[in-house]
Each structure stands twice: as structure tokens, then as C-alpha cells.
């Protein structure tokens, strides 16, 4: 019997379009922020006032003195919604929709009539209730795909499994239900989140909490509990490359012999992804969300290889679901 706090999408893969459309409602602020940046830098006008005109991201970035990679990520996401056309890698023209903003600056004021939002992390620090809401939202997104994720991952050889940044422990609790061989499951997260969990973890959905389940508070930049397997679901995309390397190196110090790291994150432009067009649009905007909220990013396959290599790991294999909402499982081993 499934626990009542885990949602299962009964509509199957045919319902992916509806689910994506639902989640699209959450990205309005990121579209608005992206449009504001494009208008203030006059990127639409600089690209050109005709549909035939085009510019490379590098030339635009140099002209307005901004980071070329960040500019590309925003333009790529907007192109998924018809605001630019990417003619070739990192070269854009205006679309029939965006050409109006290139030709008529009086339209700009319509998009700029909005207040500034506070820093995401600053807001969380000052509003504990919002931090709890954020933790709830991460758990709810995990619940949407939890059984597909567990179906991809083999935990049969592990005695200790630690979910790094596991929030309320939704994923780890389900892993323990399916894998009776695991002797201990550790939910590791910030002290504030673990303290909050103490109020709800004694009883879960009317059932006694699994005795193998424990919680530990701390920072994965400093130290983590010894484990056979570390799970990092939707964690590394929050962070820059340097911070990701720091997290992985911390885990490496406590990873037991023949251990594995399971990264559950999207892969940009993954040609093996089911529903490729849906996934491409969704991930492009998720990447902009990470850029605006955390300074993080979604990564393509080469970027994943380069990142884990710098941290002393290698990709052993990648496992994918047929649902675009379910992130691939990237399995790491230490380099020999």
C-alpha cells in the first residue's frame, strides 16, 4: 500500500503535456525577470530590427558587458516560448513575436511596470514559514515521480544510504520501504530543516516511522555521515561548478569502499529523453530559474562529465525513465 503523502501520476506518459502545463504556472516570475533584463539591455533591438538580422551571444554580451553564458541561458529559454529564434548554436534572431520589441521601445514600459523581488535566500532566512513552504514544495515535486526514480535505482548492495539535502525525507522513506537490505537510511539536511522535521517525523501517515530511518543536521560543504551510497536529488543544479565540486569532494571523504553517488538531475538537450520537445522547453526554463534564484544551472552531458571528473569521480552509467518529468539517474564511482 502506498503512503498517503506520495502522489502517483495515474495518467501515465500521455498526461505529460497536462502536467507540464500545470507547472508552467509557477514560472511567471522568471519569465518576467528575464524579459526585464532583455529590455533594460535592449537585447531585442541589438539583435536587429528585421527578421533576417542575427547576432551571436558573444558579440551581444561584449557590447553590453554581461556574462555570455548567463545571457545565452536566458535567450535560450525565451526562444522556447517564441521570443527569439536560435538559428545556430549561440546565434539568435528576433522572432515574429519579439520583433515588435525591437522596433517599438514604447512597448517596453508595459513589461517594466513591476516591483523588484528580494533575494531568494535572503527572503528564506527572514521568513521561516517560507522556508518550510519551500521544503514542502520540493517534497511535493519529488512525490510526483518518486516510484519511477526508485525503479531506476538499485540499492540492493548498500547497507547505509544517505540522502544529502533530503528535506522532509520523502524519497528516503520510500527507498527504505522497497529495500529491506538497507540497515540505515540517513536524511541529511540543514539543521533548521531537521529541527522542523522533529515535529512531524514521529508519526507518518498513521504509521510508525521506520526504525532504520534517522536524521542528521549539518552542512554538506563541511562533512557528511559515512555511507555506501549518497543520493543527491535536485541538489547540484542549485550550485555553481565550484560549489558542486566542493559538495562531491566532501562526500568522497566519507564514501565507503565500492560506494556510489546517485545524482538525480536533468541533462540539457538529452537526445535520449522521452518527450524531447517537452523536456527541452521545461529544462530550459528550469535552468533560468536556477540562474535567477541560486546562481546554479542545469547541465548538458559534457558539463556533467567535466564536473564530476574535477571532483575525482567518473560516470559509471546513466539510467532514464520514459517520463520527461523524471530526472535521469547519473551513477558515479570514484576514479581509479
Automatic annotation (TrEMBL):
Domain O-methyltransferase C-terminal: 119-314
InterPro entries: COMT-like, COMT_C, COMT_dimerisation, SAM-dependent_MTases_sf, WH-like_DNA-bd_sf, WH_DNA-bd_sf
Gene Ontology BP terms: methylation
Keyword vocabulary terms for this entry: Methyltransferase, S-adenosyl-L-methionine, Transferase
SUPFAM superfamilies on file: S-adenosyl-L-methionine-dependent methyltransferases, Winged helix' DNA-binding domain
UniProt-annotated catalytic positions: 237
Name this polypeptide is given: O-methyltransferase family 2 protein
First and last residue of the signal peptide: none
Keyword Lipid biosynthesis appears in the UniProt entry: no
Species this chain originates from: Heterostelium pallidum (strain ATCC 26659 / Pp 5 / PN500)
Molecular function GO labels: O-methyltransferase activity; protein dimerization activity
Keyword Cytoplasm included in the entry's annotation: no
O-methyltransferase dimerisation domain sequence ranges: 24-102
